[in-house]
Amino acid sequence: MGAPKTFDPSKVSVLYGGAIMGGFADGTFVSVEYSSDFFSKVTGVDKFTTRVKSNDFSGSITLTLQQSSPSNDILTGFMLADKLTNKSVLPLLIKDFSGTTLVFTAYAWIRKPPTVEFGKELSNREWIFDCAELDVFVGGNNS
Q: How many domains are contained in the chain?
């Protein structure tokens, strides 16, 4: 069986436009998803099946930050700059340094501001990035 593997959430690094993100929420703080399946299948009435390759490698990435995270200020700055100049389509990199998972896109932009909530408890801010040409290597973790 071998030695047990270890995942350390503090070893996940996220960079957007060269800025290091931090102040992540407890629980799931990064989510990555492609927009389309890589292949679809079509089966005729005579059971003849063809798979159709999609060339859509776009996707979305969601970062969940605590409301007190200074990264909210950084992301708001990028978002407002993009709103005014249309020039904040930037690289986004996610690396798990306790393993081998790597996510990269050269073309990411903030879809819209996160929902803002205030209450008795600390709330989170979900930043959704749309991405073109998303590359994902899903790896394991180290011993």
A: 1
Per-residue pLDDT tens digits for 68-102: 999 999 999 999 999 999 999 999 999 999 999 99
Residue range(s) defining the domain that contains residue 104: 9-137
d(C-alpha 38, C-alpha 55), whole Å: 7
Q: Is residue 33 part of a domain?
A: yes
Which CATH number goes with the domain that contains 75? Answer: 2.40.30
In a domain, 29, yes or no: yes
20-33 burial code (b ≥16 CB/10 A, e <16): ebeebbeeebbebe
Domain-located, residue 98: yes
Q: Which segments within the chain are labelled E, that is strand?
A: 12-16, 19-20, 30-34, 39-43, 49-53, 59-66, 90-96, 102-110, 124-132, 135-137
Q: How far, in Å, CA of 31 to CA of 61, rounded?
A: 6
Neighbours of 98 (CB within 10 A): 16
**Domain membership flag for residue 1:** no
Q: 23-73 pLDDT, tens per residue? A: 999 999 999 999 999 999 999 999 999 999 999 999 999 999 999 999 999
